[in-house]
Amino acid sequence: MGAEVDHHRLRARFQLRHGNGGPKHLRDLSEVPMLKPTAVENFRHEPVLLGAVHAAAGTIPPSLLADGLLVDVTLGSGGHSACLLQTYPGLRLIGLDQDGTARAAAEKRLAPFQDRVRIVASNFAIYHPVEQAVMVLADLGVSSAQLDVASRGFSFRKNGPLDMRMDQQSGGETAASLIQRLDETSLANLIYAFGEEKFSRRIARRIKSDLSIAGPYSGTVEFAHAIVSCFPPSARRGRTHPATRTFQALRIAVNSELSALESLLRHAPGWLQPQGVIGIISFHSLEDRLVKRAFLEDLRLEPITRKPVRADPEEQVKNPRSRSARWRLAKRRLFL
């Protein structure tokens, strides 16, 4: 179960860190919205840009799809893969995910496809398939199902530990440990580089000051409010929460997301059969720039999408997560 917010304790800690003054959102912590954690059996993730992914498979020669291999390197609950397996009865799947809860949900969802499916506990940065694929698919970022579990520590909209690890069984460094270990300058540089946050130095200064005065943060809610306090009032309004970019930066660092993506972009073209395709859904400009550059510079690949495909207005209303999604597709050339 997720941690409950102890508003009296949080208010006392904020008075210790910030005094009794400050903007209303720092004082009235009783208004923090809470979401219930999601159990394994309810792990459902609405796949974004499903139409674009489905159309991408249509660019593959039918002879390859007849008994081809799909490698879904971010399987999640299996939404994209289930659609493709349903459409192409000869298609086989290797699905990768380092999240045990996601793998369990995918096993349930993909059970009707029986021996056409193999699910592997692995990070795509270290995986190498045993045979060439007709399609490699990646849906990057944090799933809505992961955000719904407070104990994962990905979200600032409910209280949980500052964890942010995709694989909590790995024993890797948590976000709480990371901000404790880094000095102020290194933390500011990380937030700026991975979050593109213009207030990174203010935020890093506040974080390190808070840690030295009152010790570790009680959870994601208190941490997010500390970040918000670094923004001038005019910068706190808008659709994007002020803590979004800092949380993104820490998540990227904790999970080595960009280096994992760079590894995938180096190796995945070699996984493909000639005329096979690689499609990647990214959610922020850092990822999209890496994908765009790799698709243009890798001589083995021919870009199919010159500009990223975005979700249409109807999908954005139905699934707000799709608003920032960008799809790029490339095909393996015949002779390289």
List the helices and strands and how they pair.
Layout: H1 7-18, H2 24-27, H3 50-57, H4 62-65, E1 69-72, H5 79-87, E2 92-96, H6 100-109, E3 117-120, E4 133-139, H7 144-147, H8 175-181, H9 184-195, H10 200-214, H11 220-228, H12 244-255, H13 257-271, E5 272-282, H14 285-297, E6 301-303, H15 313-318, E7 326-332
Parallel strand pairs: 1-2, 1-4, 2-3, 4-5
Antiparallel strand pairs: 5-7, 6-7
Helix pairs in contact: 3-5, 9-10, 9-12, 13-14
Characterise this structure.
- The chain has 336 residues and is α/β, with parallel strands linked by helices.
- It has one domain (1-170, 257-336): Rossmann fold (3-Layer(aba) Sandwich).
- The chain has 15 helices and seven strands.
- The protein has helices spanning 7-18, 24-27, 50-57, 62-65, 79-87, 100-109, 144-147, 175-181, 184-195, 200-214, 220-228, 244-255, 257-271, 285-297, 313-318; strands at residues 69-72, 92-96, 117-120, 133-139, 272-282, 301-303, 326-332.
- The chain has a seven-stranded mixed beta sheet with strand order 3-2-1-4-5-7-6, with helices on both faces.
- α3 runs parallel beside α5 and α9 crosses α12.
- The chain is elongated.
- The chain starts with 6 loop residues before the first helix and ends with a strand.
- Residues 1-12 and 20-41 have low confidence and may be disordered.
